[in-house]
Amino acid sequence: MANEESKEKMEFKTSADFETSADYVLVKLIKNVKGVKIDVFDVLPQGRGSVSYEHLIYPFYEDNDRAVYQLQPGGYTWKYAQRRTYDHINMYNVQDAFFLTEDDLGQEIEIVADAGQVKATGFEIAGLQVKSNFPDYPATISDNPTDTAINVPLKQVSEVYFHDPRDFGPVDPDLLAMLGIEDQYSWGNDPWGRWANHGLVTPGFNPELGMHEFTSNEALFDFLTILDEYDNQKNGNDGRGFMHFYTAGQSEIGTDIYFALFTKEGVTTPEEAVALGRPIIFYQCQVHGNEYSPSEGGLENALRLVTKDLDVLDKVTILMCPRVNVDGARAATRIPANSYDKDFNRDNFTFDNAESRVVHGEFIKFHPHFFLDAHEFSGNGQYTIQMEQENGETRPVQHMFAYDFELSSGKNFNIPQEVRDLTNNVIVPEVVQTLSELGGYRMIEYTEQNSITGAGPVDPEALKDLKEYQKDELGEYVLDSKGEKILQESTNPSYDNMKLSEIPGDYFRELMPNSRHSYDAHGLQIAVNFLVEIRGLGIGKENWDRRVKTHADVCAEMIKWAATNDQLLLDIVNGAREKAIASGATYNDDDKVVLEVTQDYSEVRDFSAINLEDFSLTTLPVAFWNTQKATISKSRPEPTAYLLPKGMDFTIPYNGFKTSTDKIAQDMMKYDGAEVFELQPGTTVEVEQYKVLSRALAEKPISFEGYPRFYITVETQEAQQLFEKGAYVFPMDQLAKVLIKVSLEPDLDGSLFMFNKFGTDWQPGDILPIYRYVSDNPRDNLDLKP
User: Residues 6 or more apart from 325 whose CB is under 8 A from it?
Assistant: First the structure.
């Protein structure tokens, strides 16, 4: 135990002897380029938007060789980082973690960059933004995408965190020759021997890329082209192999977006694929451009499919988009390269980006039964809890959750119950069990927030009366001075108006079902839907092959489940679709549009975690808010049709963009697959109309995916409505019925109203330009144009 005097100050220094370091090239670059700094953090920085860590000090590091800081016992991260050109881009950094005990106080700790060369050829760091920031950089540098870390904190964690995936054995030598690979088991080795080798041969494992570059769009195209050629040679029948590789469209700036259709018969059109009568799986990767392992895992699964390592094509058809965000991938950004406030993962109703229109356009051509959305979650997330000591006192101990993948499955209450039950009660437990038996894969439900509060072990009795977040009369969440949501009043007066972080005990809150998220939006086409997240965001190529193999394994096991249970999948999904369509023509008060659900505390669970004092695997008892056990708190009966008046124009605040009911109807037809009819001009219809009760527009102009967040509350009332110019009629006896209702109900979170597509000038008492038809058989009883 250190003496009391030594507790007052702890010094550490950066190494002054850079020139003799094994990492001379990297450190010399960091030392001599203006704008590069050293950051020191109190605990590890977590994912995007986290406020759970604190910058202790961040001097610009240009000419100084030594810096001294005062630290107390605890966990810290040091990080060398290039100064960012834009807030959302951090082109490279070198980081590591250290943990101080009282015995360390009074000593000096040297910080020396320990990442080796950035690229196998020596000097280069690739990436478009790096080139612009370093004008003297070699002109020959490639345009391969980069991510945000060269060296990840906590090497010890990876030994506990990751299951070591299977090696599926040697790849066909003929394919290796076509790829220009002599030995697949040397292909994946980086120059520093940091990666385990599982024989992966996708382009991201080319040793020339080193530790910082990922598969470029050009390399992705070349790989799939060679794979397609190999497939035609090995599996071809009249020139048709198992794989049909094609370009579906272009991004906003003209970059090609690729798809691959896998069938045993080598079909090439949606009509042929549907005619096979098998379950169709839609498998999309890298919606967020800086999440690279999903795309690489998709390429690995494409290879397995054509080499028959994944022998499922006699039972299922697979449509894969290996990279949705082609421009974000090149620029190493989450969002599209041409935007600072859009997110493809939310652009599932407004279709503002060309990429979203391309992907949704392909989806509705095939009407898939099973949807896989592959992502990465932050690799640096940490949680501090209070651990009780023998004397009854508590002390903070940091933990990192020890899971190989996170999973969120279709829980949106507007997806038919039978499809949600199949997804959550059958597929999830069976696939997770299989992955566990493969050698220890661990799964955790995808959560809405980093949820360990530091309060310590949970007290179930203290939590049982807590309710949902409080809202004001406008439907907005009540926030405290720091912007944190406040809980509603509970049946226990002790917990009235509590903030979630003040709950007595640690908690874990599952992601709420939200129609605007990509995986739920596609599930609303009445399909089984999954979000699969693998650890890796922001840690560069650390444990790269294990992350990629994990992504491939998890998605492959889901595909295998669908193939093994193909008839069950068809029966449930097609049955739910037929039932929904049949019920849509007849009005029934029991058919509901679910507008809001309440998620209450439901149980205590033990979650696997790594104790960062000794890197041991342990379990943490936490309160768990289970979305599957949420309850419907607001709904209204489903109409038999929605009507939009023709020719009404609107302006979106902040950007001034113009929209109209004509464009809304057109977009819903093209990208939701909605069947839309036109009402004869001059027709009067008995309808329900929406009367505005209250409205609120967020002050921040880009607070909601580039839009001012718009809230509205309404009531419905009967009316005789004259449609002078006619109207667009969306009957509800169609497959797109669920997407139609969640798009058009004005007070539903994620609807087109929230995205300002109907403008924001509505005031209490106004009648909105959306109408509900609640009589039977609108196709027959309304005066529709032939």
Answer: 286, 287, 288, 289, 335, 336, 344, 355
Q: Comparing 22-31, 405-414, 424-433, 480-489, which segment has the lowest mean pLDDT?
A: 22-31
Let me know: does 630 contact 602? Beta carbons within 8 Å: no
Closest by CA position to 355, among listed 408, 280, 289: 289
Closest residue by Cα to residue 533 from 195, 212, 288: 288
Does pLDDT of 633 surpass 70? Answer: yes
Instruction: Report the alpha-carbon angle 553-557-561, nearest 5.
Output: 175
Quick one: which of 118, 129, 123 has its CA closest to 88? 129
Burial of 426 from C-beta contacts in 10 A (0-12 / 13-18 / 19+): middle
CA gap 79, 62 in Å, rounded: 15
Question: Comparing 41 with 402, which gets the higher pLDDT?
Answer: 402
Residues 6+ apart with CB under 8 A from 631: 597, 598, 600
Residue of 148, 150, 136 lying closest to 32 (CA atoms): 136
Tell me how crowded residue 325 is: count the other CB atoms within 10 A of its CB: 31
Residues 6+ apart with CB under 8 A from 327: 251, 252, 253, 255, 289, 336, 337, 338, 355
- DSSP class of residue 493 equals G
Residue 687 parent element (H or E): strand 683-697
Rounded to the nearest 10°, the torsion over CA 600, 603, 607, 611 is 80
By CB neighbour count within 10 A (0-12 exposed, 13-18 middle, 19+ buried), where does 448 fall?
middle
Burial of 390 (0-12, 13-18, 19+ CB in 10 A): exposed
pLDDT, tens digit (0-9, with 9 covering 90-100), for 26-73: 333 333 333 334 455 444 443 332 323 344 444 333 344 444 555 666
CB 569 within 8 A of CB 392: no
The H or E element containing residue 244 is strand 243-250
Element spanning 302, H or E: helix 293-306
Between CA 446 and CA 533 the distance in angstroms is 8
**616-625 vs 677-679, strand pairing mode:** unpaired
The CA-atom distances, in angstroms, between 416 and each of 279, 573, 575, 674, 730 are: 18, 9, 10, 18, 20
Strand partners, 225: none
Edge-to-edge strands, sheet with 641-645: 677-679, 727-731, 641-645, 767-773, 683-697, 710-723
Q: Kindly give the pairing relationship between strand 658-660 and strand 592-598.
A: unpaired
